[in-house]
Amino acid sequence: MHIVVCIKQVPDSAQIRVHPVTNTIMRQGVPTIINPYDLFSLEEALRLRDKFGGEVTVVTMGPPMADASLRKCLTFGADRAVLLTDRFFAGSDTLATSYALSYLIKKVGEEWGAPDIIFCGKQTIDGDTAQVGPGIAKRLNLLQLTYISKIDEFDLAKREITLQRRAEGGIQVLKTKLPCLVTMLEGTNDMRRGSIEDALRGARSEIVTWSAAEAGIPDLALCGLRGSPTIVKKVFAPAPRDEKAFQIDVQDKSANDISEALIAEINQRQPGLEQDIQKLAAGF
Amino acid sequence: TKKELPEHLKSYKHVWVLVELERGVVHPVSWELLGEGRKLADKLKVDLAAVVLGAPGGTADAIKDSFGYGADLCYVVENPSLVDYRNEPYTTAMTELVNKYQPEILLMGATNLGRDLAGSVATTLLTGLTADCTELDVDSDGSLAATRPTFGGSLLCTIYTLNYRPQMATMRPRVAAMPVYQPGRTGRVINHEVSLPEDSIITKVLSFLPDSATGKANLPYADVVVAGGLGMQNAENYQLVRNLAEVLGAEWGGSRPLVQKGWIPSDRQIGQTGKTIRPRLYIAAGISGAIQHRVGVEGADLIVAINTDPNAPIFDFAHVGIVADATKILPALTEAFRKRLALAAARPAAE
Ligand SMILES: Cc1cc2nc3c(=O)[nH]c(=O)nc-3n(C[C@H](O)[C@H](O)[C@H](O)COP(=O)(O)OP(=O)(O)OC[C@H]3O[C@@H](n4cnc5c(N)ncnc54)[C@H](O)[C@@H]3O)c2cc1C
Ligand SMILES: Cc1cc2nc3c(=O)[nH]c(=O)nc-3n(C[C@H](O)[C@H](O)[C@H](O)COP(=O)(O)OP(=O)(O)OC[C@H]3O[C@@H](n4cnc5c(N)ncnc54)[C@H](O)[C@@H]3O)c2cc1C
Predict the structure, then answer these.
(1) Closest ligand 2 atom, CA of B314?
(2) Cβ contact A3:A17 at 8 Å
(3) Which tens digit of pLDDT belongs to each residue from B313-348?
(4) How far apart are CA B75 and CA B190, in angstroms?
(5) Which CATH architecture has domain A2-222?
(6) Ligand minimally distant from the alpha carbon of residue A41
(7) pLDDT tens figures, B66-121
(8) Looking at the domain B7-208, which fold is it?
(9) A154 contact partners, CB below 8 Å, separation of at least 6
(10) B247–A25: do the CB atoms touch at under 8 Å?
(11) Which CATH superfamily is domain B214-346 in?
(12) Complex confidence, ipTM
């Protein structure tokens, strides 16, 4: 069995700062991490491999420094890592990203066997669109299973998979065929630490690195900024609200007094709310 | 980045909203989007259409309500394969409709259904899709200006799809206000047949386990929400948040670190990467008010913040503040409300 996992290197956005004058993102010096959502998919892929045999290949499209994130995946136990990097990809939106990644995955399939499952993260923490997974699935004509909370059954011989999908208002139990593309929900598993052998192998292994030409991407006009239908016209910081909160007087007041003052304030600002709470609390 | 619409796309007109009809229920985000779509359509002087996909005989209420919430017309596909949401038949139906009737703007909810479908539809149509918008507008040349937060809410950006049609965007539940329902409002229904034989669809729905059976949270649509943050100090103290919520018949939730610490389940996280809420009353106890939290609660009518730090950023956007220890205030507030509500219940109903 061959499983491909798509990961993205993202800035640790807790530390992202905005330049106060130019309103641009200051990426310099910001540490990068593997998109946290991708780890749930990587762990699920490694579990399937451990149980059913085969190989896990992790892939990413990004700048040369993204190889650090791939190497980290090798130390977790992935078997192989491929980096697609080329200046033609700069400025890709999700349509252009899924175009490049779909050819990368095709090429990986030609080299090491067509994948039975492709995993993507649910979304990233920087672009945060959740569009690349569905985009790849459509381009490769694969069945798409997003927001998966559990893989119930996996039958490699019958090429069938049964999984639980978080839908609106409940869980759908779905059965479909391989090959397919799966995105895992966060919190569905715990990422392993990786063995010492994996750590050593990860440090030593070569990361396969391809340019657009080496990955066999046919049309560069569909890549990067040129291949992106969306155009980011402006980036700006949200406007601050100038009104500060009205403060309830707490000086020398007991918790009970403060509570009564707050309730009075709530009733004045939201007349009728208390009657409605009455109904709510009574269970209507 | 100039608009140079190719000739064959100039016929794309009107604003569409997908009505998310699932298991007989419409997700309210669809009505919120009809409210937004109405404003865009009026500015562009075009029609607003609702797209209703569903089981044969199962679409009448959704159609009626689409008109009530502002649609001028309804495109309807009824097919047995559209009973449950599945990516394959929904993508086929949606792309067929778009190719035939050619909308210039197509909006969907940023729900699990909408995000799953929008990505497939946009890729099939090879057009642009802006995710999770917080604001939609049309600019002077009639282009859709879609604004969305990025980098965890610390920045906003405005995105255009100038040279492709339709211009697609998703918006999260509760970001837009619910439009006023106009009973008796009607419009034109356009039925469209799509061939979706069940044996050509590979993915099967074996069963559906509804949330009511497992007691899931419904934060986005709650009238009153009580939430705690790291200022609650530990999981035992967090119980004080739940106690107040129980007395108020409210939903309870918290900031992201509480999910990471395991004090609350992830479906109770409020903020950029959690739920967007729009209650009439939001009580935040021991929450600092980081931007990622703020963007999820700004739509609340009344925000009350309890925090020991008078300089906490939450006081920049809360309406009413209390600089005090939340572990002391919450029990007192719970008791005060409990007494008032018990008194009111004891009085015979005035109506
Ligand atoms: C401020 C800002 C706003 C943006 N808004 C939009 C927008 O609204 N619409 C739009 O089309 N584009 C948008 N983009 C561009 C978008 O972020 C990029 O196309 C990005 O390469 C992929 O999108 P994402 O990060 O949202 O990934 P998601 O779609 O959220 O990622 C889902 C999964 O796909 C896989 N994946 C994603 N990228 C890669 C990669 N490079 N290599 C390997 N696997 C990957 C991962 O498994 C990931 O978990 C925006 C970019 C910025 C900076
Ligand atoms: C990509 C990304 C996405 C994120 N998404 C979200 C999200 O969706 N939702 C979210 O909430 N966060 C999110 N965060 C995290 C966010 O940046 C903050 O770290 C988080 O909101 C802080 O949680 P907090 O307010 O509970 O804790 P803190 O920031 O530690 O604040 C605790 C507050 O409690 C006060 N306090 C202490 N003791 C008491 C007491 N006894 N009584 C009253 N007050 C007291 C303190 O003064 C302080 O203000 C995200 C971060 C990133 C990077």
Answers:
(1) 49
(2) no
(3) 999 999 999 999 999 999 999 999 999 988 887 776
(4) 5
(5) 3-Layer(aba) Sandwich (3.40)
(6) 1
(7) 999 999 999 999 999 999 999 999 999 999 999 999 999 999 999 999 999 999 99
(8) Rossmann fold (3.40.50)
(9) A48, A51, A52, A160, A161, A162
(10) no
(11) TPP-binding domain (3.40.50.1220)
(12) 0.91
